[in-house]
Design a protein that fits this description.
Residues 166-278 form the Probable transposase IS891/IS1136/IS1341 domain. By secondary structure, the protein is α+β, with helices and mostly antiparallel strands. The chain has helices spanning 13-44, 50-54, 57-63, 72-94, 205-220, 226-260, 272-275, 280-302, 345-358, and strands at 2-10, 112-115, 123-124, 127-130, 134-139, 147-156, 159-167, 179-184, 190-192, 263-267, 306-310, 334-336, 342-344. Helix content is 43%, strand content 19%. Bound molecules: zinc ion (ZN).
Length: 367
């Protein structure tokens, strides 16, 4: 099992210059190796392999000594990346599709340096020791599980990150004998059938305000202007912040569910409802729910546990105690049934979701 962590880097100006220079050099290498392949394929009808191209790297360094300043494995990864692009291309040709030939990387398009054999010694407390670049300040905001295998330095929206891929041994199966239904909502992010409430959607509000502010800024500023470009950059960052917060939350909740329950039931999300034009908050909530279900599903898989998606029809209207339908509007926060059962509406829904997953039908007591 591989888990990838993303940490922010705080490079010095020197680091940035070296990283940018290396990215440019690697982009150039990618393009010239691509040229070589195109030539071989189009003019002579054969395809070069990764190995054939990688063995040329030492002579390239002799011809262009500047390449000596880039870590050799990083250069090999450039050749490998090109090889992946070609393998993907040939797979599609084989399937009878008409894919475009792998493309040249434009200026600034090449945005990552891959260190395929990460060593624990790369992690020096608050610094990441990057071969041929130096010790870069790294913000490790969460504990890594497993053994680091690959480190990728990546530029995104003018910032720099380290993506660390760790190998994790799946934990042994520990059945808890417990099952849970989870209702995903717009008031609370998630409510479980065991009466557990996860944060209110308000956690998104500040991020949404930022996004809207920068969107206004972008539309107000003159097209092609430097100030507009700046605003576009800030808008992208605001989106990224919301996405990160949403992802962290999905990681936390999914972990806590999978650790405690053998069976976790959610409602099947309504795909149709999502295509339409919806307010931003709904769009982000949809994405957050999706992510929670995805994360829970893959974590459950490693842990030998189960996720079930049930039919969402009427989960908020049905009484989880007697099965009677209790009509309510979105603003009715309480489920109050003639059978005497009175409960938070989302908690009632979570119980219905669990019942559907385990095939339990409540008995109609009074009628
Ligand atoms: Zn009832």
């Amino acid at each position: 099992m591989i888990r990838t962590y993303k940490f922010k880097l705080v490079p010095t100006i020197d680091h940035i210059q070296t990283i940018e220079w290396s990215l440019n050099m690697c982009g150039w290498l990618y393009n010239s190796m691509l040229e070589q392949r195109r030539f071989a394929y189009k003019r002579r009808g054969f395809s070069l392999s990764y190995h054939q191209q990688a063995t040329e790297l030492p002579s390239l360094k002799k011809e262009l000594p500047a390449f000596k300043q880039i870590y050799s494995q990083v250069l090999q990864q450039v050749v490998k990346r090109l090889d992946w692009a070609f393998q993907h291309f040939f797979r599609r040709v084989k399937r009878g599709e008409k894919p475009g030939f792998p493309r040249f990387q434009g200026k600034n398009r090449f945005d990552s340096l891959i260190y395929p054999q990460a060593k624990p010694s790369m992690f020096q407390g608050k610094f990441l020791r990057v071969p041929k670049i130096g010790d870069i300040r790294i913000k490790i905001h969460r504990q890594m599980e497993g053994i680091p295998k690959t480190v990728t330095i990546k530029r995104k929206n003018g910032r720099y990150y380290a993506m660390v891929a760790c190998k994790i041994e799946p934990p042994p199966k520990k059945p808890s004998g417990k099952q849970v239904g989870v209702d995903l909502g717009v008031k609370h992010f998630a409510v479980t059938s065991d009466n557990e409430f996860f944060p209110a959607m308000r956690f998104l509000e500040k991020g949404l305000r930022d996004i809207k502010r920068w969107q206004r800024m972008v539309s107000r500023r003159k097209e092609g202007s430097h100030r507009r470009r700046k605003a576009v950059e800030w808008l992208a960052r605001a989106h990224e912040r919301v996405a990160n917060r949403r992802k962290d939350l999905a990681h936390k909740i999914s972990r806590s569910l999978v650790d405690r329950y053998d069976l976790i039931a959610f409602e099947k999300l309504n795909i149709k409802g999502m295509v339409k034009n919806r307010p931003l908050v709904k769009k982000i909530a949809d994405a957050a729910w999706r992510q929670l279900i995805d994360f829970t599903t893959y974590k459950a898989e490693w842990a030998g546990k189960e996720v079930k998606l049930v039919d969402p029809h009427n989960t908020s209207q049905d009484c989880s105690q007697c099965g009677r339908i209790v009509k309510k509007d979105l603003c009715d926060r309480v489920h109050s049934c003639r059978c005497g059962y009175r409960e938070d509406r989302d908690l009632n829904a979570a119980r219905n979701i669990l019942h559907r997953a385990i095939g339990f039908v409540p008995e109609n007591k009074v009628n």
